[in-house]
Write a structure and sequence with these properties.
about 50% helix, globular, binds magnesium ion, single chain, about 15% strand, about 725 residues, alpha+beta, binds adenosine-5'-diphosphate, 10-stranded mixed beta sheet, 6-stranded mixed beta sheet
Length: about 725
């Protein structure tokens, strides 16, 4: 791209007027779920009998009879055709991080030379997409391309444009999961089973425990014309070069500031579309970095919340373009300012309420609260390295450990009140806590002040913070499929709860009263989990040293962090909870390493091209202009005078040469490092080579390019600068 083009796109960007969005005439409560085949639609479009059977399939997990599926498909087709729908697709979440879909029309031959619209239960329930191009980590070789997508009736079907979208699982011919939904559902089943059993100590009526997820999606918006002029953004989702803008986020004037008009129209548009698709969008605001924003719906059951997040991310990308923006979901699009995360607010609840909610009305309620907090932390402590692996990626690696996001160590912030409560439970004289008596147990648990729910007790540096009635897993990346973190967390908590129940039951078996047994085990566990609790500043270097002393996982290299999936305790966890077999874990790790390598490889290639084809020629041109000037000065002035006049230019000419030779030399070195890494056949070793030998060069070379940006004539600089990317809106 020529330098002139930069000014053309900047002018174009400035001329974008907001596209005005007219909200529907109805109120949000009326158009909510308009394009979703939810229970209300089922009630309307299905017979009473079929409706009742579908409710049992959805709520109780009963198997789906093919006759029922036929009837449901018929009702769906009728509803969808009233909306002008002509196609259907199985919509699934392969291990590429995004979603996949293949559209088919409803039409079939009618046997009389014409066509009919047809949609049968068997098509609704199962499909066989050619799966050969999706990552499988060797679970399914390319010649055995068969994969199955199977309907997930717990996530309702919805309509986008002319297509009926059917949320599905994706599995290989031999039954292994090739997606995120299958293991997620297994983890949710495990936590339901384990938590329900523990709940019964406190309330025998409880029959089901749900895992809830409320995600907060951060993102950047960049003007589309500027985006198109940045090959690095187009190819990798982040800027690989670019000097800090003089003003960035230091004034803290963007956070919660008034939303720019063009952005507000985009947000309105997103929210209307999301509400129509049944996503309960609630919150929007400016984030810390310029042109960074956040959007959050009300929390939902985890499986549905994740489908909604996947859908939301694709909506955001699509609708941004209508407003002349590109939506950046990458965790670190710009160096030197905040990156984007996706806080995962997680809790467990029964049909009767949130389990992590406090304060309880009775001592037993409080003991239940303490039990669930402690056992959650036990899961997090036991698997802190694995949880870190569950949120790690080549892109999120830029955020973790940087001076803004949680550090690359998993710990939990509880706040003063809960920490003191746990200390009290652990340290008080058991006789003072427990006055024996079969049904009249007095638990001297201090009541928990209301203020806790108020979110006043906050710590932004903690990756896993208790925030009133939930834990907030803050380390999840903005671009990630939340399922990776959520299946790991729920499995870890399921294991902890199961272990808790085994120990309590053993004590009861020995004649201990239920309440006393629970208290005894909880007290042991409070002492056990101490190392995971950290209420201090997670950014400091002291914490890194302290965390290492406590035995927490402090690894920072992404490829090595992935090793946590294959430790004995991780394999045992996943096998015990039925989430993954060892073979599936090994296959998934192959994909993780391969994906890591490919991401760095693409970045390195495009970065090399930019250096050699965009930056160096322009820099050389500018240097020639200076050299030209110096020789002209020599023609006019005396030798001494000329030397004096050209002093500064000569320094710049020299500096440019130094930067240029560093860049050219190190781009060659980077290419050689890539070649050496590519020759390695083991995916793990290759990823390590990319991490150790290629990725650092990108940073080193970038420093020199960024320096040149401050030296070279602005008119010649070919790439839109940070001040343009971040402040034009
Ligand atoms: P923050 O102050 O962290 O931005 P918000 O009030 O915006 O928090 O809420 C963040 C998310 O947490 C929302 O999606 C909200 O619905 C969700 N949330 C609230 N309570 C719970 C809960 N008990 N379990 C799971 N998510 C919850
Ligand atoms: Mg939050």
């Amino acid at each position: 791209m020529s330098a002139n083009l930069r000014f053309t796109v900047v002018n174009e960007a400035f001329s974008h007027a907001p596209v005005t969005v007219t909200p529907p005439a109805e109120r949000p409560s009326e158009y909510f779920g308009k394009y979703v085949f939810n229970k209300a639609k089922m009630y309307k479009y299905l017979s009473t009998d079929v409706y009742a059977q579908m409710c049992r399939v959805i709520d109780k997990g009963e198997p789906l009879d093919i006759k029922v599926a036929d009837a449901v498909a018929e009702g769906m087709k009728k509803w969808a055709s009233e909306l002008g729908v002509t196609h259907y697709t199985h919509w699934f979440q392969p291990l590429t991080e995004g979603t996949a879909e293949k559209h088919d029309a409803f039409i079939e031959h009618d046997g009389k030379g014409g066509m009919i619209e047809e949609f049968k239960g068997k098509i609704l329930v199962q499909q066989e997409p050619d799966a050969s191009s999706f990552p499988s980590g060797g679970l399914r070789s390319t010649f055995e391309a068969r994969g199955y997508s199977a309907w997930d009736p717990t996530s309702p079907v919805f309509v986008i444009g002319d297509t009926l979208m059917i949320p599905t699982y994706f599995i290989s011919y031999t039954g292994e999961a090739l997606d995120y939904k299958v293991p997620l559902k297994k983890a949710l089943y495990a936590v339901d089973k384990a938590a329900t059993a523990v709940c019964k100590y406190f309330n025998p009526e409880v029959s089901k425990v749900f895992s809830n997820l409320g995600w907060e999606q951060e993102y950047f918006l960049v003007d589309e014309s500027l985006y198109a002029a940045r090959p690095d953004l187009v190819m990798t989702g982040r800027t690989l070069m670019g000097h800090d803008s003089a003003k960035n986020q230091q004034m803290d004037d963007h956070y919660f500031g008034s939303i720019p008009a063009r952005v507000e129209e985009f947000m309105k548009d997103i929210e209307i579309n999301a509400l129509e698709l049944g996503i309960p969008c609630k919150t929007r605001h400016n984030e810390v970095a310029p042109n960074q924003f956040e959007l959050a719906p009300i929390y939902e059951e985890t499986n549905l919340a994740i489908d909604h997040n996947m859908l939301m991310m694709s909506l955001m990308k699509r609708i941004a373009r209508k407003h002349g923006f590109r939506c950046l979901l990458h965790e670190k699009p710009f160096k030197g300012i905040n990156g984007s995360g996706k806080h995962n607010n997680w809790s467990l609840s029964t049909d009767t309420g949130i389990l992590l909610h406090s304060p309880g009305k009775t001592a037993m309620d409080n003991l239940r609260f303490v039990t669930f907090v402690v056992e959650t932390l036990k899961g997090v402590y036991n698997h802190n390295g694995l949880l870190k692996a569950s949120i790690m990626s080549a892109t999120n690696a830029h955020r973790l450990g940087a001076n803004e996001a949680p550090p690359a160590i998993i710990s939990s912030f509880l706040g003063k009140t809960v920490t003191e409560l746990l200390d009290h439970v652990a340290n008080a004289d058991p006789d003072a806590l427990l006055i024996a008596g079969k049904h009249a147990v007095k638990l001297d648990l201090p009541s928990i002040p209301e203020l806790l729910i108020d979110n006043t007790d906050r710590n932004r540096t903690s990756p896993f913070a208790f925030t009133g009635n939930r834990f907030e897993f803050r380390a999840v990346g903005s671009e990630a499929n939340c399922a990776s973190a959520m299946l790991t967390l729920n499995a870890a908590v399921a294991e902890a709860l199961e272990d808790f129940k085994t120990r309590v039951d053993a004590l009861i078996g020995k004649g201990e009263e239920k309440e006393a047994a629970i208290l005894k085990v909880v007290r042991e566990d409070i002492n056990y989990i101490k190392p995971i609790i950290f209420n201090g500043n997670g950014y400091g270097d002291e914490w890194k040293a302290e965390a290492a002393r406590r035995g927490l996982d402090c690894e920072t290299s992404a490829p090595l962090i992935f090793d946590s999936y294959l430790t004995e305790s991780s394999i045992a966890l996943f096998e015990k909870t039925g989430v993954f077999s060892k073979g599936e874990l090994e296959a998934r790790n192959e994909i993780k390493w391969e994906t890591y390598t490919k991401k760095i490889q693409i970045e390195s290639r495009i970065f090399g091209d930019l250096c050699i084809n965009h930056i160096i020629p322009v820099v050389t041109k500018y240097q020639s202009m200076l050299i030209d000037n110096v020789s002209k000065v020599k023609e006019i002035f005396s030798k001494e005078k000329a030397v004096e006049i050209s002093k500064e230019n000569l320094t710049i000419i020299e500096k440019i040469s130094e930067h240029e030779s560093f860049i050219i030399g190190n781009v060659d070195k980077m290419i050689a490092a890539r070649k050496a890494a590519n020759a390695i056949s083991c995916e793990r070793e290759k990823a390590i080579a990319y991490h150790d030998n290629v990725a650092p060069l990108l940073e080193e070379i970038r420093r020199h390019v960024d320096k040149l940006e401050t030296i070279v004539d602005d008119e010649l600089w070919p790439l839109p600068k940070y001040r343009e990317l971040l402040f034009i809106r």
